Amino acid sequence: MSNPSLLILPGDGIGPEVMAEVRKIISWFGDKRGLEFDVSEDLVGGAAYDAHGTPLTDETMEKAQEVDAVLLGAVGGPKYDNLDFSVKPERGLLRLRKEMDLYSNLRPAQCFDALADFSSLKKDIVAGLDIMIIRELTSGIYFGEPRGIIKEGNERVGINTQRYTESEIARVARSAFELARKRGNKVCSMEKANVMESGILWRDVVQEVHDAEYPDVELSHMYADAGAMQLVRAPKQFDVIVTDNLFGDLLSDAAAMLTGSLGMLPSASLGAPMANGRPKALYEPVHGSAPDIAGQAKANPCACILSFAMALRYSFDQGEEATRLEKAVEAVLADGVRTADLMQADGVDPATTSQMGDAVIAKL
Amino acid sequence: MSNPSLLILPGDGIGPEVMAEVRKIISWFGDKRGLEFDVSEDLVGGAAYDAHGTPLTDETMEKAQEVDAVLLGAVGGPKYDNLDFSVKPERGLLRLRKEMDLYSNLRPAQCFDALADFSSLKKDIVAGLDIMIIRELTSGIYFGEPRGIIKEGNERVGINTQRYTESEIARVARSAFELARKRGNKVCSMEKANVMESGILWRDVVQEVHDAEYPDVELSHMYADAGAMQLVRAPKQFDVIVTDNLFGDLLSDAAAMLTGSLGMLPSASLGAPMANGRPKALYEPVHGSAPDIAGQAKANPCACILSFAMALRYSFDQGEEATRLEKAVEAVLADGVRTADLMQADGVDPATTSQMGDAVIAKL
Ligand SMILES: CC(C)[C@H](C(=O)O)[C@@H](O)C(=O)O
Ligand SMILES: CC(C)[C@H](C(=O)O)[C@@H](O)C(=O)O
Fold this sequence. Notes:
Keywords (chains A, B): Amino-acid biosynthesis, Branched-chain amino acid biosynthesis, Cytoplasm, Leucine biosynthesis, Magnesium, Manganese, Metal-binding, NAD, Oxidoreductase
CATH topology of the largest domain in chain A: Isopropylmalate Dehydrogenase
Shape of chain A: globular
Largest interface: A-B, 60 and 60 residues
Cofactor (chains A, B): Mn(2+); Mg(2+)
Number of strands of chain A: 12
CATH class of the largest domain in chain A: Alpha Beta
Oligomer: homodimer
Strand order of the largest sheet of chain A: 2-1-3-12-11-4-5-10-8-9
Strand content of chain A: 15-25%
Pfam families (chains A, B): Iso_dh (PF00180)
Helix content of chain A: 40-55%
Radius of gyration of chain A: 20 Å
Structural class of chain A: alpha/beta
Bound molecules: 3-isopropylmalic acid
InterPro entries (chains A, B): IsoCit/isopropylmalate_DH_CS, IsoPropMal-DH-like_dom, Isopropylmalate_DH
GO cellular component, one term (chains A, B): cytosol
Order of helices and strands of chain A: EHEHHEHEHEEEHEHEHEHEEHHH
């Protein structure tokens, strides 16, 4: 049997730096645990635009469709701010999500014990926090038609369309209920059903899927604005949150920031099972390309490393190895090793990106 | 000259209770400061639905168009959850906003010194916080067409449309720049221009209005997801935030919760000047109808009282009287008077709604 295949797309900014550490980790699993991967690498985002005039070539898109999992660093940067919408770095990422049909985006917001002090929230509010936000990732206002800027009389008019079909909602709801069963068995669905018809359909379909297939899971509904409030007020009330693409974008970022350690948070974007039974999958850190610190060896590779841990769990059925890697990261934090983003006081020298990666390997 | 006119719409849940305290305050200003108002009262939301089968009658709508300012309590409640979309309590409020063309929604997020401990955030992150969120209130996905739930083949499809014209963006941008000039002179505009064309137009128009009319104001742009993060991480970096209807809904609620005292936060919704020079205006607390505590004399009337203070300032050019009222509320807090929502420890008996109102009057 051939090795499972990984396509690595480091992207822009700190993407390549953090991905270099992940490659070390991948090699370690090959050398020490007999988990070999066929790794290939390619361009995405601004890097792809610079080389090919497009943020994702058709060839790269094809490769992404063929591999067992894609690992992505980050895309974007001020250099590309004035590019035409259709070739912005983000379009590369959005094309991957859409064409691979990665409808279920798992965004854990987890507060690491060693880092609880680092949150802007009071320690008792966030210590031990462990919530999972499931964001719909291939539909909604990100992709709905019609869209664009048109001219009406003398005026420009900007238009986007939120559009959700019943089956789009049902499949992401299912993935939330499945996940909840392996965790705290509680799902809170968020929309604006008091204002938007697409929110009414969202609420109804989530409830129907629940009643027909997952009556054992505790389900509640909350308006997204109240959800934003409750995340700030008492985030530990949540277990799994399921919401649409746009609300998920804001709410998962707010939730990530609650933990105080954005540089620690991974994500998985999953689609339907392929012929080999594995889901289509893309893994990426929640943080962005951080152009302000790129090239300075300051970036925290942990979010990207933990994204690979999610790959081990969700794509390769290696839950135990994933846990091993996660525990290694926690142990490094417990030892007080910190990249610059995790430091509050001056005095100590922060670890560089590669020192952090090496520390994780030492713990493995 | 006749007295300025006020239409009071107490609405549902705790709305009538908090509004009763505001009426005491209004009387005080008439008796002691010679500020007489012609006050009328009417129904909105579930209360209007119960009486008339609609959350806002045409007669009430007409009255709202004629008065100098509307004061609203809150709308909604579980009793109305299963009503048809078109007669839900919220539609009454949305009709008022839309037909009065109240495009500029001012939502201060202010942390009261006496309450800084009450936030879920660390004290140094929120103490002294004073930001103003300007939310566009009459357009965007709340009102765009087409909308609805349609049938496509066997499937239901939920549709809403985000739609912004250049002039809709320009006028709310102007109101943000005007306000910034009276405050810290800084505006941060938030959208998702990396994903939505309507966000590109938003960003461009805000920049154009700035460059042509307000070059003295410091302007920055931020993606709304990053904005949600930064509000949690370091909210004091902001002075005025301007954003669209939907983002404003979530971001202003998150910002409100940062202060830890939702029961304290007022809002103003302003439109174009009327013949008498006053803007069309509606004032309402940020909190909702809180059906769980309705009828128990537990509600905090301060948000509604401070909404009346905003009316004094923005509709009646009584900035000094507004400040007098705001200072009275602060003094009451400094004395340790607390409604139940502002109490952390047991032991002390909380003030009732009317005790809180009376305490404010005593300070005036
Ligand atoms: C980069 C951008 C297109 C993306 C999004 O808006 O989805 C990012 O914010 C995210 O959350 O993954
Ligand atoms: C009650 C509801 C329609 C309203 C909104 O979504 O605008 C509320 O959340 C608000 O923020 O004023």
